[in-house]
Specification:
Layout lengths: L1 E4 L2 H8 L4 H8 L5 E6 L1 H33 L4 H38 L1 E3 L3 H13 L10 H15 L5 E5 L3 H4 L2 H9 L2 E4 L2 H10 L3
Parallel strand pairs: 1-2, 1-4, 2-3, 4-5
Helix pairs in contact: 1-3, 1-4, 3-4, 5-6
Length: about 210
């Protein structure tokens, strides 16, 4: 039995259609693999969705503005053609958001059913808050308290489960790929992968 830790980017990679391998892994999780995720990742994913909705709403507003301008240009065939294409883009923009919505909630629903959720406990929370206020320079991930909380949830769980082989998978290399983090993971017996495809390749090479 092996433990696979995932975080917010696992959810968003599926939701945004950027990680088909992650979707496949979630749909067909091997029996000998336990997927674990900190509970705060669900909140972060929902917050990311809200930002996506805001961006697409602003895009929609700009499209409507350009459509109205083009409609007033009755002397130009090109402007009238632009109206058609802009209106199609308007439809596709909403359709894309609907797809992201569906895939996000589907991924969350499957994780709730299949994964084990790591609850943020008082010990981890207190440590990060103290570091953030007293010695922020000692935090392994600078200027991102959420990712520090996620990391410490995983490290704390890993330290309590020495009997299992443990893997952490995250495409967020800007934070979790940092040298400070990469030095911490092996101390808790954790192997790191930045791509689902690389993890699956390694998994298939193992005697599971």
């Amino acid at each position: 039995m092996k433990i696979l830790y995932v975080e917010t980017n696992f959810i968003m990679g599926i939701a945004q259609g950027q990680d088909l391998a992650a979707s496949e892994l979630l749909n067909k999780t091997p029996n000998s693999l336990r997927i674990l995720i900190p509970n705060i990742c669900f909140l972060e994913a929902l917050n990311t969705l809200e930002k996506e909705k805001k961006d697409r709403y602003e895009f929609k507003q700009e499209l409507n503005k350009q459509i109205n301008k083009a409609k007033r240009n009755i002397a130009s065939v090109n402007a009238q053609n632009a109206v058609f294409h802009l209106e199609q883009t308007l439809i596709l923009n909403q359709a894309t958001l609907n797809e992201i919505n569906y895939r996000l909630y589907d991924a969350i629903d499957k994780l709730i059913d299949k994964a084990e959720i790591i609850n943020l406990n008082g010990y981890v929370l207190r440590n990060i808050i103290e570091q953030n206020f007293i010695e922020p320079e000692t935090l392994p991930i600078k200027n991102d308290i959420l990712d520090n909380l996620i990391l410490n949830c995983i490290l704390n769980h890993a330290d309590l489960n020495n009997q299992f082989e443990k893997i952490f998978m995250s495409s967020n290399t800007n934070d979790f790929g940092k040298q400070e983090v990469q030095e911490l993971l092996p101390r808790s017996g954790i192997r790191y992968f930045s791509r689902t495809q690389d993890f699956l390749g390694w998994w298939q090479s193992q005697d599971n």
